[in-house]
Specification:
alpha+beta; 5-stranded mixed beta sheet; 364 residues; binds zinc ion; 3 domains
Length: 364
């Protein structure tokens, strides 16, 4: 018999855990002074809602200021999200169990024989509906029809990205296009075997970007091209061979950083986790390739050392280190001298600065 205490589970969740869930559910979360702001995935499809779902760290509760106009906790949010995104009816017990398994919270877990319950079993139990198939320890995401990529415009000049240093060859190679219907740059996501598992759009319109967040899954003709971001590493299809040879991988937050890396360097060992959290599965994908060092190259998401964001970031990095240091060397590119701008990826300001930061990377 497995007994979970809802409050106990809720209290063991860190704000980074909440952030990770919101990210996985397409809420495009952002840390704020009081907690987190997300799109209203409580009553909208991901990418549809406004940024009016607030999470307050002091109470551990969410408040939706539009559609729901109410306060709820992470379990109730999960129930809402699963209903909307997976057409799956979860009760409170299911929700509590799901969260407990996901984050390995087992304080009240009574059945010792099942203590081994790991991510794969957990996915097998709960994510079948999302067409995630269990193949020993490999998860195959749902594949989208590649012909969708033919609908995008590849002739349009993606000037902002070219100006930032991404080469036209790299844009072509990665099938980066433009979807006029959404005023979005289109970024296809492939799994390591080159199957199309999602398409994300980078909104260009300023108002759109503010309302929906800059990145969101593409929504075309009634089809949402989303995928659980934590279940794939962007660009691993391109970089896996070099990663195997070098036994190192660089993990950026965003797709664009991989495109910059490809534009500057020949041996591409970059991937993007598409957010600021790294999942067990993503790390496992790298370990399966024989990596000995995982280089975390997240954005400079702090204005000055010791500010609120700095504490969030370093806490997040320490958490990653603690979780995975026994499996590989975890090193961090951390721009403590602030040679790049606020919110910059280490590669945003050119190869020279990147190489400097790379050389100065630290091991905790
Ligand atoms: Zn709502």
């Amino acid at each position: 018999m497995v007994v979970f205490d809802k409050l106990e589970i809720r209290n063991s969740l860190t704000i980074e855990d909440i952030f990770e869930l919101l990210q996985e559910w397409g809420g495009e979360p952002e840390f704020t002074s009081f907690g987190i702001i997300s799109t209203t995935i409580c009553h909208n499809e991901p990418g549809e809602g406004s940024r009016k779902l607030y999470y307050y760290e002091n109470t551990g509760l969410f408040k939706c200021y539009t559609g729901c106009d109410s306060t709820f906790d992470i379990f109730e949010l999960l129930i809402k999200v699963f209903d909307i995104q997976k057409k799956k009816v979860f009760d409170l017990n299911d929700a509590v169990r799901y969260i407990a398994f996901k984050f390995g919270i087992s304080a009240s877990y009574k059945d010792e024989a099942e203590d081994q319950l790991d991510d794969w079993k957990f996915l097998n139990n709960y994510d079948r509906v999302q067409n995630i198939e269990l193949k020993t320890n490999k998860i195959e995401l749902k594949e989208y029809d590649k012909t969708i990529l033919d609908r995008f415009n590849y002739l349009v000049n993606i000037r902002p990205w070219l100006n930032e240093g991404i080469s036209q060859d790299v844009i072509d190679y990665n099938k980066i296009g433009f979807y006029p219907g959404g005023d979005q740059i289109t970024i296809p996501h492939f799994d390591p075997d080159g199957r199309l598992v999602g398409v994300r759009g980078r909104t260009l319109g300023k108002e759109e970007a503010e309302r929906f967040g800059k990145y969101r899954p593409l929504y075309i003709m009634g089809q949402m091209y989303n995928h659980p971001l934590g279940m794939n590493l962007y660009n691993l299809n391109n970089s896996k061979e070099y990663i195997k040879i070098m036994k190192k991988a660089i993990v950026f937050e965003s797709e664009k950083s991989c495109l910059l890396y490809q534009s500057y360097f020949n041996f591409d060992i970059s991937v993007a986790c598409c957010g600021s959290s790294l999942s067990n599965y993503q790390v496992q994908q790298l370990l399966d390739l024989g990596v000995e060092e995982i280089i975390i190259a997240f954005d400079r998401q702090f204005q000055e050392p010791q500010d609120e964001e700095w504490h969030h970031l370093t806490k997040n990095l320490r958490k990653i280190n603690d979780k995975y240091k026994n499996f590989a060397t975890i090193s961090f590119i951390f721009d403590k001298n602030m040679i790049t701008g606020y919110k910059s990826s280490p590669i945003d300001e050119g190869p020279e600065k990147f190489l400097q930061l790379f050389k100065e990377r630290t091991i905790l």
